[in-house]
Protein 1
Amino acid sequence: MSIPVPAAQPGHRAYEDSVRLDTGGIVTGLREILGAQLVAYLGRVANTRSVREWAEGSRAPGADVVMRLRTSYYVAGILIERESAKTIQAWF
């Protein structure tokens, strides 16, 4: 008889990634789900060039922006488990 392994709780992976990934990983993940323009809006920058530079690591956003992006990544990660990227973009 085998002991059943409990399923991972919804959002667990999103949380783990949101606290462990570096800023470039967070930005890259958000771009994949939300698109560069929405990430720029969340990061309070006027253009997607800054978002690209954050993802590449050639430029770093301020600490307040990093926290906002990490929180957004966590929320988007939870939602992507059940919804399409287009739906999540509309919600954001």
Protein 2
Amino acid sequence: MRKFELISPCHFGMESVLKREITDLGYDVTEVSDGRVTFFGDEEALCRANIFLRTAERVLIKIGSFHAESFEELFQGTKSLPWEDYIPKDGKFWVAKAASVKSKLFSPSDIQSIMKKAMVERMRSAYGINWFEESGSSFPVRVFLMKDEVTVGLDSSGDSLHKRGYRRLTAKAPIAENLAAAMIMLTPWRGDRILVDPFCGSGTIPIEAAMMAANIAPGMKRSFTAGSWLHVVGSRLWQDALEEAEESVDTGVRTDIQGYDIDDEMVSISRENARLAGVEHLIHFQRRDVEKLSHAKKYGFLITNPPYGERLKGDGEIAALYRTLGERYRSLDSWSLYLITSFEGAEEAVGRKADKNRKLYNGMMKTYYYQFLGPKPKARPRPEE
């Protein structure tokens, strides 16, 4: 099989989670940098990564890298890459995104324009034609410039991988599915333990948890740009990866996952999204104010994305809400609380310093993932005991 160097971007601060996912899939990670993980894999790996990775934003085939401090160097470096190995004569190709950090070249539009011209120049020579109709499959390109080092990747995913294909209805400020998955994966929660989201919105955190519990791969219900790249990845490999995912599903698993929201409409939206994800029977949604938060069982997990920023009127209203959350959390015997927020007064309002705090980015917003850890449950007795 053909070997690739693959790049998976992710939310800043969640690189270690994605690295673990890639390793668990059986692939060798070669580099971990801010916001992305690089690994080696073949054509099968390209398919499996797109279908199975929960915390990645997309999967890119690395076309090459080079140093560029001027637009001429950018042009020549791009032109030197083997574009004809990936893009056919009728392919539709463009630089979908350019990101530059601490580099002399920093204008995304100029970078995109010059790289497109260089790609055309290379392929014009390779194919012996002067005009490209671009009527075939799409080949979006993404480029990262870091300290004048240019890394070029071909986007095999298309839409971001956080788009699982189940969420048709959303809350005002929904959390991305891959970020919700990463939040859960940073906890000791497993499918047979209790999980409650008291601010569930459109249901993303409970749904992602239920999909994990039932071993439902996140990419099972969507398509990928590389699905039409038959000269790069055969359709049989996509089918094999999908069959592998389908064989792993266990929707008969028993769970205790609950989602609460004060808004009846949000509860209805959550139920519909859960139905579309195929996990509605694994989650209990209900209208409940955080003031009424309670649970009879021990050793549960509160994992949530409370309102913050533009979702509330000001710091005073936010602090009051978080104080209520803290009071209700303290009433829960031996539970753990995990919350993501941009509100820097969260610990003071909750009434306890977090045991762990991870800085990460929710889109362009800097947030904190506060982790208030409860005691570990007592070990279960062995059957012979």
Protein 3
Amino acid sequence: MKNRCFVATILCFLSVTVVPAQDYNALQKLALVFAQVAAGGEYESVVNITNRGTTPYIGNLNLYRAAGQRWNPLVNGNAITNGVTPVSVGPGATTTFRITRSGTVQVGFATITKPPSNENELTSFLDGTLTYYIKSGGVLADSIGVPPSSRIYLTTIPFDDFNTIALALANASYTQATVKLTLFSETNARVDTLTLSLQPNQHLPQYLGQFFPAVKMTKGRLEIQSDPPVPGTALTDIGGQFSSLPLLPSAKLYNFTTSGFGFQVLSGDVSIWIDGPSLQGYLILLKADGNPTHQTLYLTGLVFNGTAVIYIVDMNDSKVDVSNFAEQVFFSQFSLSMQTIEGSFTHWAFNPSRVADEGRFILTAIN
């Protein structure tokens, strides 16, 4: 890998990024998900969206609750049916959806999507926020703002009070999702693990004490891992005062080795984190043909429907002509839940264009 650089070509990405209808894990900026919406009682939720594109955004606000049932609260004071209300936002415009209901509080989740007839229109894009408003005796007592929900492959929530953490998960896809929740103490001892199967459009909001009713602890962390990724929202509830918690992608660490190369055998360490379909990380080359070496390289790539394509970038070598080299690792079966992942490695050389080396790339998880 010495003196080689990443060259991103459109064709490389197109070969692995065919997007099926309404896949919320791939359609970033074309679809939004809010994994927790509350309405009724003392609660109401307000969604604000802005169209950052150059043409109108035409789509639907979809509301679900519990095991995927369509949810029909009031939207901007109007009754809706089948959990759907139309969305139309002009270029640069901002639109508000106030979600309320009479009676006791109910919770669900929301998606904003384009219809199948318009889903490949790529000139209108959404940014959005959600704010919860909580009243007491008719007077505003608290408000919490949250961004669109993160798609969780692997994330960590550190906490200093186990009983204050609230988590909402929403499987906004057409396939079942397997979600693993693992609790660790503040000294990194594994406390408990819970594996959940979320059906399509299923919504699951609970406090950590409800997920783990037998656990008694204070400080520690929760690790969440999901295949396929699911949107989530996390909050703290301290004396009835709420705060939002970011669900940021966590790094997964691996040892790597190569095999089948004609010129050298490589080994070292890899770290990977995934945000939506985007993958980033580092590769530390420790040995080449058994000889100690040390070179830090950057990783960038894409994960979609269990397929990963990763490009290796030497951003520290200003002398490299980026038109001369490209390196790619391709995994036809990729999941952060797998202990061992094996894929193909290709090194392209240009001027003249040719495949210079090919082989196998093997990752073995170490955390």
